[in-house]
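Incident log, structure service

09:12 report received: a user says their structure output differs between two submissions of the same chain.
09:20 pulled the input from the user's history:
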Amino acid sequence: MIKINLLKDHSAPIEKSQPSITAPKIPLTGYVYIAVVIAAVIMLGYLWISSGNAVKVANDEKQRLERDLKAMEDLRKMFVELEQKQRERQGRIDIISKLLESQKGPVKLLNAVIQSIPQNDGIWLTSLEQTGAGVKVKGATRIPEVLPDFMKDLEKSGIFTSVDIEQIERRYEVSYFSIVCTGK
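09:34 re-ran on a clean worker, output below:
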């Protein structure tokens, strides 16, 4: 038979027992899973932070490249403008060179004719025509005796190979002449 004392015995010391809290026992595989989850969280955090930094670096690089591209576009436009100005200037220089080359002949011709005119002898020229390889000089003089000197001086100028008188016409006291000079 079992006896149960339902009355409290105050004489016996009462032991107050603390409820013991014991952690439930986790098997070893649970610890592995927890470690893997913690490692994955740490790794994902690191990847998130590093990808955020990579995105920031990529955006900064993109902005730098866009600024460089704009600067290069500005330089390219300036380069194109400078090339166009250079072509225009070179065209002008070529035109001036051609004009100078084409003027050399007439300038030499006029200089030779002017230097061949006897000084203070009363010869004046009325026209100078360039015809093919030759030149026709028309003029007038009061003293027809100076014409041979004028013709010799034209021949001595070195520009003409032959100098011939084409026509002399005397009206009143003035002689009108026409001289044909063949160029080299």
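09:41 both user submissions now match this output. Likely a transient worker issue. Closing.
09:42 reviewer note: The first strand starts at residue 123 and ends at 131. The chain is about 55% helix and 20% strand.
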